[in-house]
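To: structure desk
From: M.T.
Subject: fold request, one chain
Message: Could you run this one when you get a chance? Sequence is below, nothing fancy, just the single chain.
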Amino acid sequence: MKAWFFAAALTLLAAPALAQAPQAPAAGPVYSVATTTIADLLDKPALRAIFEKYLPEIAGNERVNEGRDLTLPDLVQYAPDIVTPDKLAAIDAELKALPPQ
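Reply: Done. Structure tokens follow.
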């Protein structure tokens, strides 16, 4: 009798957890200049449009693929007159405004 009561109690305790609505699938990544790589900026059309809008000299450079694993802040040391804080802020705002992909 105790075993039956114990099993029934466990079933009642677990029922609310089992009845919960399924979780929505996780949204895609949220992009930012701090975490988005040059590879993503080149390979994803929405990101590439932003990259080309603000940094066409870099996006169109024949050697850009050499830095695919870098982020935009990493490029500041190589082109501080092109990759400026104002451009980084503008790019970051546009990246964060994109819907999850």
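Reply (cont.): The longest helix spans residues 2-19. Let me know if you need anything else for the meeting.
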